[in-house]
Design brief:
Layout lengths: L2 E11 L2 E7 L7 H12 L19 E7 L7 E8 L6 E2 L5 H13 L9 E9 L4 E10 L2 E2 L17 E6 L17 E4 L5 E9 L1 E7 L12 H4 L3 H14 L18 E6 L4 E2 L5 E2 L6 E7 L2 E2 L5 H11 L5 H5 L9 E6 L2 E10 L5 E9 L1 E12 L7
Parallel strand pairs: 2-3, 4-6, 12-13, 16-18
Antiparallel strand pairs: 1-2, 1-21, 3-4, 4-5, 6-7, 7-8, 7-9, 9-20, 10-11, 11-12, 13-16, 14-15, 16-17, 18-19, 19-20
Pfam families: PrpF
Organism: Alicyclobacillus mengziensis
GO molecular function: isomerase activity
Length: 384
């Protein structure tokens, strides 16, 4: 077998960890490229022991970055959710946490340059959602400054703040902010059970459910506490996916191969203890929410899911608007109580003449963990 080396970096971005690659270092053929990437991650394997993957949904993530030819962007960024137990990469969703690492990575790789110390901006075109993200972060001597005083729940220690502005991100999957044509739908499963849902397409196509209808408190912090409702949530997710024609006729769908739509449960604020036993008071946040990723409870709250929840809460008639605290409804900000703490996001929306979103903003931190060369076999196209 012939071997070669591929330049790569591993970054923590927000509460996720991802393998970041330059597009110029990858094969042009998508099938060969994905073979190489799966080998890099060590998929499929539950432990990803023979690769660089982290063996959890939040640490088996991919970012491909290259210089952009667009006039409104500096770099193009493609996200991939790399399946752990199957040989599959889902390129349909984006990851807001990994997005926070893209600007620093592009700078460190020389894809973009900063001419002065201080704040710099990188305009990122996300190919998954066909939208622009502007990343703002600190630079010194031409390099990203990772250390600072900003703390985000779910990440030990502190770091330098990275501001992310997501523009025109609505309807990236379905073409509509509310793809069912309604802000609240009642669905009926094959066994006769009925549930109310809000389906919103921003950040990632997301389904919001009422935790009361699932007989959940809505403030659970471990997967074990919600394990009994996961099959029902998957049924709802697949029902909506088929209703929106996201899946082909007869296609076998599972959480590990079909990341979209995302699904979450929401609840009005209640006191609870976070996963690290911190006491979270109901007055300190606006809505409790728990989101799944690849069928697993997210240990914090996915940024793209937070975008969907924040925007949804600003529109009357949605489950999240009803469940959020009254004080948050007239504010741009939303404080989301999740298993590890509180995530605060900001959304600018308009109701008339159409429901529209102009911008969603949040703060993350990121850190480069390692940069080097990964050893991989030479993958070649098989000629039949």
């Amino acid at each position: 077998m012939e071997w070669t080396s591929v330049p790569c970096s591993i970054y923590r971005g927000g509460t996720s960890k991802g393998l970041l690659l330059r597009g110029q270092d990858l094969p042009q053929d998508p099938q060969i490229r994905d073979q190489l990437i799966l080998y890099l991650f060590g998929s499929p394997d539950a432990k990803q022991v023979n690769g660089l993957g982290g063996a959890t949904p939040t640490t088996s993530k991919l970012g491909i970055v290259e210089a952009s030819k667009r006039s409104d962007a500096d770099v193009d960024y493609t996200f991939g959710q790399v399946s752990i137990d199957t040989a599959f990469i889902d390129y349909r969703p984006n990851c807001g946490n990994v997005s926070s690492a893209i600007g620093p990575f592009a700078l460190e790789q020389g894809i973009v340059r900063a001419n002065e110390d201080g704040w710099t901006s990188v305009r990122i075109y996300n190919t998954n959602t066909d939208s622009i993200i502007v990343s703002r972060f600190m630079v010194k001597d031409g390099h990203f400054v990772p250390d600072g005083d900003t703390k985000i729940p779910g990440v030990p220690g502190t770091g330098s703040p990275i501001y992310l502005d997501f523009f025109d991100a609505g309807g990236s999957v379905t073409g509509k902010l509310f793809p069912t044509g309604s802000r609240l739908d009642e669905i009926k499963l094959s066994d006769g059970r009925k549930f109310h849902v809000t389906v919103i397409d921003i950040g990632n196509l997301t389904i919001l459910m009422d935790s009361d209808e699932l007989s959940l408190q809505g403030i659970e912090v471990s997967e074990q506490q919600i394990a009994h409702v996961l099959p029902t949530m998957e049924q709802v997710r697949q029902h909506i996916g088929r209703m929106l024609e996201l899946f082909r006729q007869g296609e076998v769908v599972s959480p590990t191969t079909h990341a979209l739509p995302k699904i979450a449960v929401v609840q009005s604020p209640k006191d609870y203890k976070s996963s690290d036993e911190t006491y979270i008071q109901s007055k300190d946040y606006d809505i409790a929410a728990r989101v799944l990723t690849m069928g697993r409870l997210h240990p914090t709250y996915a940024v793209t899911g937070g975008m969907a929840l924040t925007v949804s809460s600003k529109f009357s008639g949605t489950i999240s608007h009803y469940k959020s605290s009254v004080s948050s409804r007239d504010s741009k900000n939303l404080r989301i109580g999740h298993p590890a703490g509180i995530l605060e996001m900001q959304a600018e929306v308009t109701e008339h003449p159409l429901a529209q979103v102009s911008r969603v903003t949040l703060i993350r931190t990121a850190r480069p963990l390692i940069t080097g060369l990964a050893s991989v076999p030479v993958f070649r196209e098989v000629v039949s």
